[in-house]
Amino acid sequence: MSLPPGFLEELRNRASLSQVAGRKVMWDARKSNQGKGDLWAPCPFHQEKSASFHVDDRKGFYYCFGCHAKGDAISFVRETENVGFMEAVEILARDVGMEVPRQDPRAQEKADRRSLLAEVMEQAVQFFRLQLQRGAASGARDYLARRGLDAAALEHWEIGFAPDAWQGLWDHLRGKGVSEELIFGAGLAKPSSRGGRPYDTFRNRIIYPIRDARGRAIAFGGRAMDPEDKAKYLNSPETELFDKGRSLYNLRDARSAAGQGQALIVAEGYMDVMALVQAGFKAAVAPLGTAITESQLQMLWRIAPEPVLMLDGDAAGQRAALRLIDLALPLLEAGQSLRFAVLPEGQDPDDLLRAQGAGALQALLDQALPMVQLLWRRETEGKVFDSPERKAALDKALRAKITLIKDPSIRTHYGQEIKDLRWQLFRPGKSKPQFQKVMPRGRGGGRWPLPPLAPMASTKASALGTDARSTEHLREAVILAALVLSPMLVEEFERGIEAMRCSDPDHAMLRDLLLRSNDASSEALRDRIVEQLGEDALENLLTQRHVAITPCIRNPGNIEMTSMTVAEELAKLEAARGLDAEIAEAVEDLDGMADEAVTWRLSEAARAADRALRSGQGDRAEYELGDNGARISRDERSALDALLQTIRYEKPGGRD
Q1: How far apart are CA 610 and CA 637, in angstroms?
Q2: Is tRNA-binding set as a keyword in this record (predicted)?
């Protein structure tokens, strides 16, 4: 509705923001200056301990330097009371003694009706509470006592009892002059389908009143006392007062406790909330018998940035958590998410508190999982990824979920976290087995490991004698440097990069960073390298002479040239691995009479290398060796000579 000009301005002038906010916060005496209207407190909109919430009482505005919430007295009431604009105006006007101008007839009629329904609900609360004291409710009282609810708890939660009668509440309200239409409108009774008298919605049940953020009774929850009853728990039907998907049990008190720094806990039911509050966890709420809705999520986030979902350890509880992930992903914002505390199987919060106490439950809260961890668990738990197809299916499922996230920054961080988890699953970091040379044991057969051999002079002199100058090391450096400058190519060459052996630990770490960060920008990748390998790692890599003179390094940004360079260097490394495999196979054959054949094979390889070198191809000459087509350079030829010397040994007869 439209309000008369000047009404809102006068309302804001009359309503002291410090008094309005003072009902929800505790002012910091050291930072605040009451005389100047300069007030500070922990923010009521997010969980914190420092006083970052500032009120300028003279200007009538508030601002939080933590969560950036801001507004005036009306917006403060709207957010803290979870009400609409007009309801906030009415609350403030009532506090300062102003009369809100009449709305249009329909709106006023609707507001009046809601007030009447709220009055009927309060009468029902008192009726049910009185019934709990009667003799017919002895079974209900015994049950509540077994659940640890004493007289003070019954008073606090306003617990009642609906007698086992068809018209108990109906007759009571009609006797008080309440119209049939209002009783039906409040959801307290239902008309008979057989033409008989209306009957009560709740019969033979323990009654839990449900109140909104303003403290009005809007609905009831009832637990059946008859074990044969079809519905163990029953809620009021939806009415003009009660929207199940927009309500939370214990919302008003939980919001106040969360504003004082307690963790906001979302449990499954009424008794869970009561047990938590009794144990000191006062910021506890529960949805009302259904899965959490988007509206309820937004309500939770208005109270705390990271509510903790405390779910029963049974299958139903875990399914509820997993369903909630899909709802929450598109709604995530920076600093706004969920965490999950999964109870031991077969236990609810009351069970855990009784068995192990509040300390155990606090430990569970401290270990609550971030949502990305639960998403990963959902997609991987109980599954085997022993084929490329299964791994691809996992990647597809995770990508589909991550794309639901609208915030690009959060989407990027989720992608990185999932990539790290995937790395841990598929590449757990096992050390690669080292090739072990063997020598004949003698005429009796069997094998012994060769004793460690000191490097020979020719080996030290060769390019392969020092890793820093080896051909393979040089190629690795070129590949890694090229991909650091063009990380968008990592995915294209992922398989080849994974196969790089990287005897240099720094190269191995850089390779792993590239594989985990293939969707990162070049700047972001450099930051990660500096963070994990130190500030000098990149400079040391890019300033090596053989790296610096590579065309794609001299001309960064030329993606086509970089792609060709990486492809060529990876192919050469793969060919070199073929050569290594042939040599390894030959050395494995050094047993008994096979040694002459092995020596012949290696000598032929060496002669082939000599012929290629003599053909005049120069220092950068490369040539094929053996049937596998492996190409080696002059430096690798020197290493081959060294190998021929190292495999000589003295045979049992004393002959070389």
Answers
A1: 8
A2: no
Walk along the chain (656 residues) in steps of 10 and give the mean pLDDT of each run: 72 84 87 84 84 88 88 89 83 86 70 90 97 96 94 96 96 96 96 89 97 90 94 94 92 83 91 95 90 89 88 71 89 90 86 93 94 91 90 93 91 91 77 38 37 39 39 87 87 82 81 74 79 80 86 86 89 72 52 49 56 43 42 52 49 39
The span from the CA of 126 to the CA of 142, in Å, is: 20
Identify the helix (H) or strand (E) that includes residue 57: none
C-beta of residue 275 within 8 angstroms of C-beta of residue 257:
no
Give the single-character DSSP code of 587: H
Would you state the structure tokens that stand for residue 208, as one six-digit string? 């839990």
- Cα 419 from Cα 515, distance rounded (Å): 9
Q: Nearest-CA neighbor of 456 among 319, 226, 640, 588?
A: 640
- Global pTM value: 0.58
Domains, the chain, with CATH or none: 7-96 (3.90.580.10), 104-242 (3.90.980.10), 447-646 (no CATH)
Residue 382, sorted as left (phi over 0), alpha (psi -120 to 50) or beta, turns out to be left
**What stretches of 284-386 adopt beta strand conformation (E)?**
284-285, 308-311, 339-342, 369-370
80, 24 Cβ separation under 8 angstroms = yes
Q: How far apart are CA 291 and CA 368, in angstroms?
A: 20
Q: How far apart are CA 623 and CA 630, in angstroms?
A: 8
